[in-house]
Amino acid sequence: MLPRRLLASWAAQTRALMKWLCLIGPVAATIGSACALFLWSLDRATRLRFDHPALLYALPLAGVAIVWVYGRFGGRADGGNNLIVDQIHQPGAGVPLRMAPLILVATVVTHLFGGSAGREGTAVQLGGSLASGFSRLMRLSAAEGRLVLMAGVAAGFGAVFGTPIAGAIFALEVLSLGQVRYEALLPCLIAALVGDWTCHAWGIEHTSYAIAAGDAGFHIQGWLLAKVTAAAVILGLAGLAFSETLHAAGALVRRLCPHPLLRPVLGGLLLIALVQVLGTRDYLGLGVWSADPGAVTLPGLFQPPYRPFSWLWKALFTVVTLATGFKGGEVTPLFFIGAALGHALAGVLNAPLDLMAGLGFVGLFAAAANTPLACTLMGIELFGAAHTPYIAVACFVAYAFSGHSGIYLSQRVAVPKV
Amino acid sequence: MLPRRLLASWAAQTRALMKWLCLIGPVAATIGSACALFLWSLDRATRLRFDHPALLYALPLAGVAIVWVYGRFGGRADGGNNLIVDQIHQPGAGVPLRMAPLILVATVVTHLFGGSAGREGTAVQLGGSLASGFSRLMRLSAAEGRLVLMAGVAAGFGAVFGTPIAGAIFALEVLSLGQVRYEALLPCLIAALVGDWTCHAWGIEHTSYAIAAGDAGFHIQGWLLAKVTAAAVILGLAGLAFSETLHAAGALVRRLCPHPLLRPVLGGLLLIALVQVLGTRDYLGLGVWSADPGAVTLPGLFQPPYRPFSWLWKALFTVVTLATGFKGGEVTPLFFIGAALGHALAGVLNAPLDLMAGLGFVGLFAAAANTPLACTLMGIELFGAAHTPYIAVACFVAYAFSGHSGIYLSQRVAVPKV
């Protein structure tokens, strides 16, 4: 009896494992390679932008080109991340393959000319469109295609940030607010690991972040935990404010500029004006690296000098960029805004700067994307296990306070927050 | 509009947070203290057993005492962990308060006389019965009582192993196979943190485990990952075999000894015979610490010398102990059996001994309890973040291969594994 049950479980799961390895392996390797190409291009574009500061003045024009190309050739690709989440919830026509080159080029162009945007939207869309194209090629059933699409999201997310386990959980968690279901567990895990591995194999290195505070002989300190909780409440409300503002700004821009081509002109001019008024270019682009050693960057927010308002400026630059038709993700800016907000709160709460920056990094994203578990794992993958309790409190409390909307409008509510 | 929504979310969630802090704080502190008392007693009992080896010969009698007391005074408390899971799925009469002292004393007695059992069942039952008693005292609604009961499980689990985040996720994950729902997120997180913190405040220190393999500049190695996957498949099947054998042995014992008081006599005599035949006492008790420096212990399995069959003996001792009416959890023995199996597989697969022992530690538990996410977090909390991808693969693949049953019979199937 027992040997038969063992054999049955072994046979069924080995078949499943082999099937997913064969199905997902090649597509995840393709996605990982696409992400490597994307990250490499992004790096080149950012360096070019620093070498040629005048590129910024062409930002309005670059935006017009992006919006025109999307309008002319994009079709449903303009739906972006929301289209992918929709197709997972209710498999339909799939995600068009053209989404992959379009989003890759549009994001690189956005960054080349100085738009403030991210990477995860691009990676998720690369993953989703390649996975969906593969499903059509292999004539997979709707049910299988759905799992492959989730795996594509996991591969893209895992590869672009170098955090495979967070990527796998992200793909399971992002669909519905308040629930993780394990139906696509193996496909997502395989995809994220293969995607990340492939991206590394192309020589891509990810930024590393270090939190020195309390690293040795660490145990929870009640007082610090209270400060972390207070910061998490603010991060949660900031996540809510960010997604609502982003959606409202998009609606406002559509009302102000009925013609789509006018919107990036407005956005580009606003960004140029912001740069002139503030006298800094630190909030353009990805914000992870700068040619100027004195600039505000994401890794720099883990150290002094104290910068109390960086989060506000980065949020402003990002909302203007994303609401006016430029392309890229919301997540790297959210990392930046979150780390800057954590950094600012460290000063107010008298808490370690590096720890609070790290908690803001993942906490704001957890709040805005409603993915606390993926963000907890991401925090662990990026900052190490020593701060696990603080990371989890930051992500889960921020999630609790961010309301029922978020940056992904296609998300459904499975378990309400109160 | 936005300020009003921010205020509404802030007010609602602050109310929830305060409510749970006030409700859960005291009960979690009580549970943490009970766990501290339990761990302290367990340590004393283990030391006493080493000082007085003859205690083993009283094991049959001790078992009779446990079974008699449970039969006379236990009532529904004999339902153990399954009663708690049932009461969370379908709140009814609650968990009787007497479960707490009964399980504490019975587990310590089991360990004092040399039974091979664990701690988590005891911690979960301490948590569940104290939480349920508290709900009745405060006249909480059935819905609230349910959440407090889950929080009690989180507090007990988090405190007894010193892994609060794994404890919180365990309480959410253990109820249904294949699904995590966030309804009790804040209560479980608060409870696990307070429980762990209180247990530490009493001076309890947890065993620490170290995996040195590939600690610096770590990145996934394809070949090692393949070995880990192969080991995880075996861990998954071993988890299935362990829970099925445990249930079958229980049924067999009930058939052989219709009178409940005879069962621990049989079990005790079998354990004494096993000790005589094998000529070792290493598989008695918890297995975490030994007065004999040459003994097989759980931390010792992370190092040479190579012991290819320890897992089998520990499994045998544990099944005999738990199937014949002795008390304690299945989980610490599962840690031991898993670490020993990983250790054995490291030799076969030519993989690092410490890494494979660590993966077996959490992987077998993930398989037998169907809680891969909690076990991944536990692995990270115990062994550090450097091995996150291997830990996750071990837990999730082992989970996939362990079938739809497990050590907790009250678990429901939310998402089937194939």
Please give a structural write-up.
Two copies of one chain form a homodimer. Chain A is 67% helix and 2% strand. Chain A is mostly helical and 418 residues long. The mean pLDDT of chain A is 89. In chain A, strands 1-3 form a two-stranded parallel ribbon. The termini of chain A are far apart. The first copy, chain A, is globular, with a radius of gyration of 21 Å. Chain A contains 15 helices and three strands. Chains A and B meet through helix 1, helix 7, strand 2, helix 8 and helix 9 of A and helix 1, helix 7, strand 2, helix 8 and helix 9 of B.
Detail the poorly predicted runs of chain A: none
Radius of gyration of chain A: 21 Å
The geometry of chain A reads as globular
Report the biggest beta sheet of chain A as strand number plus sense, adding barrel if it closes. Answer: 2 strands, parallel
Q: What's the quaternary structure here?
A: homodimer
Q: What is the mean pLDDT of chain A?
A: 89
Strand order of the largest sheet of chain A: 1-3
The string of secondary-structure elements of chain A, in order, is HHHHHHHEEHHHHHHHHE
Helix content of chain A: 55-70%
Total helical elements of chain A: 15
What structural category do the secondary elements of chain A indicate? mainly alpha
Give the N-to-C terminal Cα separation of chain A: 46 Å
What fraction strand of chain A?
under 5%
**Pair with the most extensive interface?**
A-B, 65 and 65 residues
Instruction: Tell me the total number of β-strands of chain A.
Output: 3
